[in-house]
Amino acid sequence: MKHMNEHTDSLAGLIGWLQSISPALAAVVLSIVTAGLRVVYGGGTYRQMFLEAALCGAVSLALVPLLQWLGLPADMAIFAGGCVGFIGVEELRRWAIKLGQRKAEGS
Q1: What 8-state DSSP symbol labels residue 1?
Q2: What does the pLDDT look like over 51-61, one tens digit per residue?
Q3: Over the stretch 64-93, which tens digit does the pLDDT of each residue have?
Q4: How far is CA 32 from CA 8, 25, 88, 100, in A?
Q5: Helices 46-69 and 76-87: crossing angle, nearest 10°?
Q6: How far apart are CA 67 and CA 56, in angstroms?
Q7: What is the CA angle 94-95-98, rounded to 5?
Q8: In this structure, are residues 31 and 56 in contact, taking their beta carbons and an 8 Å threshold?
Q9: Neighbours of 95 (CB within 10 A)
Q10: Predicted pLDDT at 88
């Protein structure tokens, strides 16, 4: 049986490896894993887990150019990917609709 330190070292090694490859790839992977775990923790089905993880990964990948356009560091993509996976696409969709409605009312 592995001790917790061995698991922590393995996870830290995996995260370091992902960061060294590309912050965008690390963001997508973190988003997918976080979304999948969130759905499982919430009692969702495997279908829900797969679809939510895929959608969160796609949203995270789409956010990378936005972060670059805003002049933020590339490593910020990893944070954004984690947030997208934790929040989920339905909540992000609600926020986007509210923002669009506010902009439309203000015009």
Answers
A1: -
A2: 999 999 999 99
A3: 899 999 999 988 999 999 999 999 999 999
A4: 19, 11, 10, 26
A5: 150
A6: 16
A7: 85
A8: yes
A9: 11
A10: 94
| 72 φ/ψ angles, rounded to the nearest 5 degrees | -85, 155
Tell me the C-alpha distance between 83 and 33, whole Å. Answer: 12
Separation between Cα atoms, residue 93 and residue 44, nearest integer Å: 19
Nearest to 48 by CA among 61, 57, 35: 35
- The rounded distance, in Å, linking the Cα atoms of 84 and 96 is 13
Q: Where are the beta strands (DSSP E) in the chain?
A: none
Which residues contact residue 50 at a Cβ distance below 8 angstroms, ignoring those fewer than 6 apart? 36
Q: Give the pair of three-digit tokens for residue 13.
A: 């090694």
Instruction: Give the span between the Cα atoms of 24 and 27, in whole angstroms.
Output: 5
In the chain, where the domains are located: 22-106
Confidence of residue 14 (pLDDT cuts 50, 70, 90): confident
